[in-house]
């Protein structure tokens, strides 16, 4: 069994991101490739747009269970969802954040998962040579050791950081999830930075094999939180006209190009960004007619 998994809890804007991602997937993949599992506290909002096709399921989770899963950190929710999916929907699990757009048919990913391959979205490089934050974390944490389930984890000059917007693994690897949670907690306790969850996944998933990248198949526009109100307006306006019209209107926003533009600005040297800000030319989301 192949399962494509989404998590949309709390924020209404996550629903509309998820709707766009699912529509992009449905235009590339055959209907019987995978069941779509949407973990959400607002299933009706999805159903009003997507209808009730047999291949989309909403695992029933009580309000109390949501709160228990969430705990003190948001990332814990993702881990608990993955544990639930592995137990109740065993097979090949492919989790994607809602702020994603499918660009290629993911059938090869599911085939590789069946052979034991693990996936994350994209490699962000060796931390010792990465961006400013990665290098800062590397300098702070190198030499530390963390004991998880009898295994010693260290951060060294070869540690690669992967983006956790996509997580793919066969369900028999779910035994790693408790260790990932524990490692993440220890990493946060050592140095409280927001990327510790993806670092924990990266370190655990690479312990005994090479990770594969899902990036050629799916775009993860994690840097465009400003686009959420636009997507929400488009869904509200065009969903009543049908899914084909809605998908066309969402696609004309060209999130891929906006994602690349913002990343290019983010990648400038600090003095260059400061100069652009002083000139009133810092990158901003352009006006989008909805």
Give an overview in words.
- This protein has 2 domains: 2-220, Spore Coat Polysaccharide Biosynthesis Protein SpsA, Chain A (Alpha-Beta Complex); 229-278, no CATH class.
- It is 44% helix and 17% strand.
- It contains 12 helices and 13 strands.
- The protein has helices spanning 12-26, 43-50, 63-70, 75-88, 107-114, 132-141, 176-190, 196-205, 228-238, 243-251, 255-266, 270-278, and strands at 2-8, 35-40, 56-57, 92-96, 100-102, 119-120, 123-126, 145-148, 151-154, 160-162, 166-170, 212-213, 218-220.
- The chain has a 7-stranded mixed β-sheet, with helices on both faces.
- Helix 2 (43-50) links the parallel strand 2 (35-40) and strand 3.
- Helix 4 runs antiparallel to helix 7, helix 7 crosses helix 8 (196-205) and helix 9 packs antiparallel against helix 10 (243-251).
- It is globular.
- The relative contact order is 0.14.
- This is Nucleotide-diphospho-sugar transferase domain-containing protein.
- It comes from Hymenobacter tibetensis.
Outline the secondary-structure elements:
Elements: E1 2-8, H1 12-26, E2 35-40, H2 43-50, E3 56-57, H3 63-70, H4 75-88, E4 92-96, E5 100-102, H5 107-114, E6 119-120, E7 123-126, H6 132-141, E8 145-148, E9 151-154, E10 160-162, E11 166-170, H7 176-190, H8 196-205, E12 212-213, E13 218-220, H9 228-238, H10 243-251, H11 255-266, H12 270-278
Parallel strand pairs: 1-2, 1-4, 2-3, 6-12
Antiparallel strand pairs: 4-11, 5-13, 6-11, 7-10, 8-9
């Amino acid at each position: 069994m192949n399962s494509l998994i989404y998590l949309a809890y709390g924020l209404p804007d996550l629903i509309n991101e998820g709707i766009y991602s699912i529509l992009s997937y449905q235009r590339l993949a055959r209907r019987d490739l995978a069941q779509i599992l949407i973990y959400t506290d607002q299933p009706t909002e999805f159903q009003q747009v997507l209808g009730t096709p047999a291949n989309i399921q909403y695992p029933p989770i009580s309000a109390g269970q949501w709160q228990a899963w969430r705990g003190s950190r948001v990332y814990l929710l993702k881990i608990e969802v993955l544990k639930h999916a592995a137990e109740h929907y065993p097979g090949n699990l492919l989790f994607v954040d809602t702020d994603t757009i499918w660009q290629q048919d993911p059938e090869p990913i599911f085939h590789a998962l069946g052979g034991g391959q693990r996936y994350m979205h994209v490699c962000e490089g060796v931390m010792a040579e990465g961006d400013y934050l990665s290098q800062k974390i590397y300098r702070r944490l190198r030499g530390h050791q963390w004991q998880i389930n009898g295994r010693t984890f260290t951060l060294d000059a070869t540690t690669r950081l992967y983006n956790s917007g996509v997580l793919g693994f066969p369900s028999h690897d779910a035994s790693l999830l408790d260790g990932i949670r524990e490692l993440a907690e220890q990493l946060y306790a050592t140095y409280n930075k927001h990327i510790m969850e993806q670092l924990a996944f990266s370190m655990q998933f690479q312990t005994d094999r090479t990770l594969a990248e899902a990036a050629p198949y799916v775009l993860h526009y994690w840097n465009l939180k400003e686009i959420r109100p636009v997507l929400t307006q488009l869904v509200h306006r065009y969903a009543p006209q049908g899914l084909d019209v809605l998908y066309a209107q969402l696609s004309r926003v060209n999130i891929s190009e906006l994602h690349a533009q913002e990343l290019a600005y983010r990648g400038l040297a600090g003095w260059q960004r400061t100069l652009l800000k002083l000139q009133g030319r810092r990158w901003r989301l352009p006006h989008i007619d909805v």
